[in-house]
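Researcher: I'd like a structural prediction for the single chain below. Treat it as a standalone chain; there are no partners to consider.
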Amino acid sequence: MVGFTFGGRRWRVHPGDFDHPVVLIRQLEQTARAVDENVVARMGFSLSDVLEVCLAHGDHIIEGLAPAWQAGPEAGAAAPRVGDAEVSAVRRLVDAEPFGWIDQCSKPAAARRALTWLTRNSQHLRMRHNADEATLGPVLRVSTEHRHVGVPACLALSAAVAATRYLAEMVGDAGDAAVQLHARTWSHTVDLLSRRLVSRGGQTPKPAPVRPVIEGPRFRIAVVSGVSAAGLQGGIAWGKKLLSVDTATTHNTAQGSGGRSAILERPVAKVIVYGGPANVVAQMVGEAVVLHVEELAEMLAECGGDLTTVACFLEDLAFHPGYTDVAFVDIFDVWRAWKEHGSIGPVTVGAPRQCLAVAPATSDETWERAASWEDVDAVLAEAGISAEHIDWPFARGDQGDGADLFYKPDSPAMLVNVNPPVVLEVDLNDAVTLHTHPDAVVGFADSLRLHLRKPAISKHVRDGTGRTRRLALVWLPDTSFEHTEGALAFVRVDPNLRQIALVMAAGLFDMLADNPASAYELIGEGLERGLTALGTGHEASRFEPSAFRSAWRAAGPFMTVHRQVEALPLVARNDGLPRSAAVHTRANRRAVTAVLRRRTPDGVFLGPDALRMCEEFILPAVQESLYDLTCQFDRTVTLAVAARVNDAHATAYRSAQQLAVALTGPWAHNWHEIAITDDQYQQTHALETLLESLLAEPPVGSAVADELDVGEITALAHRLAVTAAVVRGYTDRLHGLRLTISRGMFMVEPDWSDHDDAERVEIDLAAYTDHRRAARLIPAVSQPAGAVDDHQDDDSGLLRNSPPGHRYQVPFTPIHGRLPVKLQRVDDRLRDHWGTGLDGIRAVLGVAVDWATDASGVQAVSRAELVDAVAQWSELSLAQVEAAVDRLTLSGDHLREAGPLRFLDIERRAHRLALRPLVDVDKQLLILPWRLLDTQRLFDAYLHRSRLPFAHRDLPPGVADMMSAHRQELNAQLEELVHGVVAATGLPCRTHVEVAELKRAGIPEPLGEVDLVVADSATGRLWVGEVKDPIAAFSTETLRNHVRKFYRGPKPYVPRLLAKAAQIREAARGVAVLVGGPDRARWRVVPILATRDVEPAAFVAEPQVPFALPHQLPDILRADVDPAPGPVPL
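Model: Treating it as a single chain, here is the predicted structure.
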């Protein structure tokens, strides 16, 4: 069911025979606002009265017939037929008091006059069968000798359209109505493109400018309108004339790949946005795209306010590359096809140009969307809020349960709940009062909304009236509550708006961290007072304060605040880079064009053939398309991408912190899907790949890159990185390789089919990644102490320290003396060979992270300025500071030496952004505070695992061996941890079972010490375990090395474990007694591997033994069934 709000009431709508009925009604409504005064002067009623009467008539019939309509899935499958129930319903409608619903209209007297005008004698009716004419014309009621009969509901909208056309033609385009319509169209268009909240009602906006053209780097948009059909035609002709004058085209010549000239020609797309009651149909786009302002609004709403997606569509349609013209009946048909296929027609390179005809759609997505949003819009209408979801720049639905409506990050927003019907109103600017992020303000409201949905509470909020409540959540400074006798919240109630304003002190938000139960109780008391006040005097209200109070207390807190004090960068922008499917499609289209230009043959290629094709055609083509695109811009594109890198790291950090806290709360299950699917690395990796590419191949053009340009080149860099990573996985023998090419479109993917390569290790990387993400869901309380690295939750990491900046006054504390003796020797060796050690790196990172930046979040500084600031704070020598700055600086020279596929060497490459976050651009260093913060955390993570984030070949002599020796201590700690976990089960067990002991137990020539033996007499199982703590795996080379160590090395872990288990099987009785088990004749030996982290070697095709994490061991040992080889499910 779909409704429409008109005259202060929501009416149910019958779509009739129209393709986009709701879009059409919006057009008619805006036309009515423009012509109403003229129509009233001539007719005694307005066009708005006519439209309301038509909607009311349709609603009345639907209300009477709906109970007789068949519902459910079977209704759509059955052949349509009129049943007895419908016949009876129609008879009741005809026999009832005719047109009694007229009094439900907002102006009954005017509505009666409009209805009289819409009445025709049956003898004067004329049927029309043309597609562009209403069936009966402007007729809603037919009179006979004895009675009046209304037209069917399916003709109500048809009557409204015909009436609008007649009255609009009567008014014409010469007076104030045309000026008003043009002003409304201009205002609406500007609001949409400026991402402002659209105001449809109220006073007439200011007149449109004399030259109503919106200029932009990509578009020139003319805004026109027409009250009559002729007026619209004249307006469109005028718009084309405006667009034809001085259409700018950006030309830029640069040196492309291979030394050839690359020219950026960016002709400005021409678009005409029009308003009025009529529609332009059967278009043929040659130079300009023509669309109604309501069509533009619908497209924006459909893609969640993503202006870049609509811009991509309009640009593609305006230029239609590969085609002379594009012909279509309905622009929504083109929009649908473009979204499905990602382009205006198939991509063509070198093919003859021709006209493209777009086939009509078989369904109406705009109607389906309106139906999906109906419940939300109905709640808004009931609350007296005129703006529907389509009027908000950013509307995010909640699967029919509600919606979030935003338009600016520092402005009011609304969170809508359907059941119970509540609109929560918040002001994102309250984040300043709370000294937090706007996400926290929204998070509080969202948590409260979810709480109100609980059945025990929602029934009290509904209170039997079914009326929509408005709940305004207001945060004020604590100083505003100085005269409230200690109260942290009070309530204001507006019965006319049915609004409760819950005004809260900032201290109440702090209480959510210190005493959430008390804060929850205060919020409940405020809601109780507000609901009581609203229910007072309302006959239908059944609100019982005591019952609500009990339900609220029983439900428990809905939100807690986790306060964490950290030295974080001040500017933390959201990562708003365009990453829609449309942006990726444009990038892919460039790659496909480059592949076609190389005359790449079609086919399916496997193994060596696939590798040859990738190396000769695919990868060079994508690299060429990326370079040819980036070289056309000026050098400011590097700064723009650097800022996006910083934004991406800021967003990833906040998301990780929020997720980490959420997974420790009682509502952790609500976050499981996010934890499993979250992959912020993909967002940052593509941007860092692009930034390194720009440093290595600096742009030489003069064009200024806009947001969409940066999004497109990032998407292209992502495609290159993903494709090359799959190829590298094949060359590193992690999997096979399969390449499919069809008309330039290509897919490079791992091949898991049978093969003869004995060296291939074949890790199921997808399963490994999913398992690692699932491991994040393990509650910390269920893991033994030391089982995971928890140092990252400590704000005093080894390399993290804040300088005496504008936020903190913290002196520099050298790290050297706090390191274990073995790591002190490592630090000495680094300082001897590099000229700096961990303290120098730590000091530079600490100062740079806290560096003041402008609003972009990044800052360019001179090397001398940074060195002086670090030396002054840390009191380290200038030589040591300069050496540390060198060690942390990334330059284009080093990147060029590494080659074009440098980004694939994640851990083997010394010159990469993760290790060198100070970016050298034009003899200045770019400070990216959030990237620097992640580098601090990276060093911390490695040091806590007794590693350094450098390849062995890049370390001073002997350092790798020194770190390896220190890592043996971690291995011993893990073995002790595992022993403690197993011992807690009460089963007899031993760790470090030495060779001599095994000999005494009956094994003549033991292969070596056994890490763990557990005897379980109840099941007769003798567990033989190896405990391993290998280094974390990030690159394909490290993954491969893991597998080789576990399966194919000189002393492979898994075969040796199986061999030891076989030896113990022959002497199981003696070994069981050795570990404290009973002396029995029969034991079943079960091998198992325990690792600190999820181990990639567990995900090979034939893992042979089970792999477990320490916290899983108790359940594994108690289970009746032996674990299967491979990773034990989490």
